[in-house]
Protein: Translation initiation factor beta propellor-like domain-containing protein
Organism: Wallemia ichthyophaga
Amino acid sequence: FAFLFNLPLNISSLLASTIKSQIHLNISSLPSSTITTMENPADTTDYTDIYAKHSIEPINPLDSIVVLDGMPIISPEKQSKLFKALTKAISAKAGIDVSDDQFYMPLNQGKSDGYIFLTLKSSNEANTLINKLDDSPFDSKHTFKINKFSQIDAYLNASDEYTEPTFPPHNPKDHLKSWLNDPRGRDQFLTHLADDVQLNYNNRNNPPETTHSKHNWTNSYVSFSPQGTYIGTLHRQGVILYGGPNLSQVSRFAHPNVKLIDFSPKENYFITWSNEPIVLPPPGSSTLCPFSPEDQGNSLAVWDIKTGELLRTFPTTPGKMPWPHLKWSGDEKFIGRLVPGQQISIYSIPDMNLVDKKSLKIPGVVDFDWCPWGDKDAQNAHSGKGVRENMLAYWTPEVENQPARVTLMAFPSRQILRSKNLFNVSSAKLNWHNQGDFLCVQVNRHTKTKKSMFCNLEIFRLREKDYPVEVVELKDIVTFFAWEPRGERFTIITQSDTSNSQQMAPGVLVKSCVSFYQLDKTKGDFKLLKTLDNKSVNTIHWNPRGRYLVLSTIGSQSKFDLELWDVDYGMDEKKEDIAQIAQVEFYGVTDIEWDPSGRFLAASASFWRHQAENGYAIWDLKGQEVVKTSIEKFKQFLWRPRPKTLLPKDEQKKIRKNLRDYSRTFEDEDAAEESNVSAELLTQRKMLVNKWNEWRKLCREQLTQIAAENATGEDDTTVEEWVDEIIEESEQVLP
């Protein structure tokens, strides 16, 4: 056998022992009744059930040996170099450490035959190697083809007779984006009230249309995936994802006492977190547990949504935990984890191996974030031209004589693209533009005496050469910053420094200013458009389509106004004018959210924040109320996100050009809908009038019948008349 396959003596001896063990296993696999009869013919007791219960599947020693096919054909002089490259590839891609003495390369007439034997520690390692490396490239000319040696042995002993394979019946799956097929193009929203969760279609003129209602659907909160494909519900045992027209279960993930979840940008993966560390069930328990002993004590888990596979677990860093704790790159190729003050560890997806086997050692690092994946990046990736490498930004504070620094880095090349030194820094915050065009670093600085604070905005322009940085100097503190989606403007809320002033009473708002800035392409800096003084607002919510925004106050006990502003109000007259177009009010507002189309605005008051007048309301862009309802124990309101459009840029421009022609169709549909509403109202009123007329007719008939009965008989009715007469009247003054 060793001569036929040209194997070394150690493998041939292993095969010989395997054959002996197979003979023993064949004997031991005989029926229990046969074994019993051989040992003691007089004993007729049947032990079949006991043997079946405690039977152990025999271990095949060949399962730990794999054959690496598709390898380069080389001479013996290059063997060590090839083994070194294989060791590096297997360690990097499969996470398995091997040595040269585990390889065996057969030679034929002084050259290899293109395959190599590799002896691993166990069958599980062999399975891992096959899953990670099979059909993956080794170099530009060779691809891994990996099989277990036991499989090759099975191929040699395969029958020559053809047996037609059997296929399981096809079970069609639900269309996970079925809600997009609505003929009227309506958006959906989800409401969570008490123990019920409802999924509704938003109507412009009619009340919302409830499509699904679930009771006790979640033990905590509900979450949509970024493109609206999945609805995640949290339970004591783990997370369940639902989707499709019937909201059927898509997959479930066992993570006991899960508290938070976070989806990846393209919905292929997601993260779960529990405040209780992972504990394995006792041996012999029937509890479903996807975790291994290496996962015990961790609290973060990364999952593959499509396969349901657990990719890796992580511990949480000590101290206050930011969320999301693990941050996704825009293209989902990497995931980063911050160890405050020490390093940033970046792992590749889906193998979850540390990239280049080393972290980014950054002493004092406070925070980092990935550059978002914009529409331009997606188009370039699709065409394969001008693809921009992933970027991340991080900042470090001042340490001794070293200034604070903001750094922009390309990854995985780890090239420093731009850095900026900062002085007298108290804190910093990274604000990315949603298309990855700009990065604003909000730097809170103190004076040399450290008695007062002010703010600078360091703005990186990421689509231009050498990544120029513009500085916007302010005298006050920035309390809120928001980029215009798909635009070149941003809005800030500023307040004077109140850190050393007398503590304000709870619920009392400090007067603030709202400022609008826009990029001036001719000068290459950001210019101030307008400032609104003496405002009592603390949040900004831009319309997802740009142009419109809402200034609001959340968390106040005395102010509940929502101001709708149009940043391009004077666009038709070619003027840069910003104007307020509406103002609405919603008592106790805790959350504000635009719908994906940007045509409707929703505000809600959650029972989780306060217990007074919970509910939600929806308005259109003009501030006209669409629906407003007060619901006891109302908890959550969520618009269902939409995926990005599949229309190319030229088709979108064509639609915008002919928008008036399309708008006529929609206006006719709206008019028809309003007329239907009016017709239904008129029908209901007519029905009520008919009922009233029938009742009057019945009353008249009854009166006529009574009058006829009285006319035929004698009238014996006695009429009594009472007359009041004043006999004496006197007045008396009481003491």
In short: The CA atoms of residues 595 and 639 lie 6 Å apart. Confidence is low (pLDDT under 50) at residues 1-43. The first strand starts at residue 65 and ends at 69.
